[in-house]
From TrEMBL:
<comment type="pathway">
    <text>Cofactor biosynthesis; tetrahydrofolate biosynthesis; 5,6,7,8-tetrahydrofolate from 7,8-dihydrofolate: step 1/1.</text>
</comment>
<keyword id="KW-0554">One-carbon metabolism</keyword>
<keyword id="KW-0560">Oxidoreductase</keyword>
<dbReference type="InterPro" id="IPR001796">
    <property type="entry name" value="DHFR_dom"/>
</dbReference>
<dbReference type="InterPro" id="IPR012259">
    <property type="entry name" value="DHFR"/>
</dbReference>
<dbReference type="GO" id="GO:0046655">
    <property type="term" value="P:folic acid metabolic process"/>
</dbReference>
<keyword id="KW-0521">NADP</keyword>
<dbReference type="GO" id="GO:0004146">
    <property type="term" value="F:dihydrofolate reductase activity"/>
</dbReference>
<comment type="similarity">
    <text>Belongs to the dihydrofolate reductase family.</text>
</comment>
<dbReference type="GO" id="GO:0046654">
    <property type="term" value="P:tetrahydrofolate biosynthetic process"/>
</dbReference>
<dbReference type="GO" id="GO:0006730">
    <property type="term" value="P:one-carbon metabolic process"/>
</dbReference>
<feature type="domain" description="DHFR">
    <location>
        <begin position="7"/>
        <end position="169"/>
    </location>
</feature>
<protein>
    <recommendedName>
        <fullName>dihydrofolate reductase</fullName>
        <ecNumber>1.5.1.3</ecNumber>
    </recommendedName>
</protein>
<dbReference type="Pfam" id="PF00186">
    <property type="entry name" value="DHFR_1"/>
</dbReference>
<dbReference type="GO" id="GO:0046452">
    <property type="term" value="P:dihydrofolate metabolic process"/>
</dbReference>
<dbReference type="GO" id="GO:0005829">
    <property type="term" value="C:cytosol"/>
</dbReference>
<dbReference type="InterPro" id="IPR024072">
    <property type="entry name" value="DHFR-like_dom_sf"/>
</dbReference>
Length: 185
């Protein structure tokens, strides 16, 4: 790894039928899974799709919101970026760990550059309108760790099996130089 290259990770959760989103939010209500997400990304610079960003109540500093809308106004501490690559460059420049937090379209554009993918596999099918991208072939990645927990899902008031996996991509693509780094936000 080059000396100025920080690890890029992605993080997300997916149902057994591939769903990851419903009506702009998550298809499930599993507070402990959300707490795992928050703990894992604490202190990191985030790369976020515009729709996911808009669904979040709290967005930490050094969040880079990917959008093709040049005039998008984002919250203080956040910046609009025109591409996932620009977002990753700007996030890396903070010197913090970098996490891509979705949604689906951002995972699809970012996975090539990711060293790790923290994925919670929720062992139940859920209704959804946003699906984990098929282009992210995690079966080709190495499983670095796996922890299985039974957690309460509050929409159904039942326990569900959650597999917390950390996948490692052995040879992620190097991030290309971007010609156009905007300084909005
Ligand atoms: N289960 C999970 O772990 C998880 C994680 C995150 C999100 N989610 C869910 O996923 C859903 C949202 O996902 P989504 O895929 O519909 O939306 P998204 O990725 O959050 O946002 C899509 C928007 O991001 C911008 N964008 C995406 N790719 C881009 C690119 N390559 N270049 C420039 N701009 C780009 C575009 O914004 P403009 O339209 O402004 O150009 C696009 O409309 C929500 O339901 C959310 O709750 C689930």
């Amino acid at each position: 790894m080059a000396k100025d290259e920080t690890l890029i990770s992605a993080i997300g959760a997916v149902a057994s039928n591939g769903m990851l989103g419903l009506a702009g939010w998550l298809p499930w209500d599993i507070p402990e899974e959300l707490a795992y997400f928050e703990k894992t990304v604490a202190g990191a610079a985030l790369v976020i799709g515009r729709l996911t960003y808009e669904s979040m109540d709290v967005v930490p500093e050094d969040s880079f919101v990917v959008s093709r809308q040049a005039d998008l106004v984002v919250r203080p501490g956040c910046s609009r970026v025109a591409s996932v690559e620009e977002g990753l460059h700007r996030a890396l420049a903070t010197g913090k760990p970098v996490f891509v937090i979705g949604g689906a379209s951002v995972y699809a554009a970012a996975w090539r550059y990711c060293h790790r993918f923290y994925l919670t596999r929720i062992e139940r099918a859920f209704d959804g309108d946003s699906r984990f991208p098929e282009s992210v072939q995690l079966s080709d990645w190495k499983v670095e760790s796996e922890t299985v927990r039974q957690l309460r899902e509050y929409k159904s008031n039942t326990d569900v099996t959650c597999r917390f996996l950390i996948y490692q991509q052995i040879n992620p693509l190097s991030l290309p130089e971007t010609d156009c780094i905007s300084v909005t936000g």
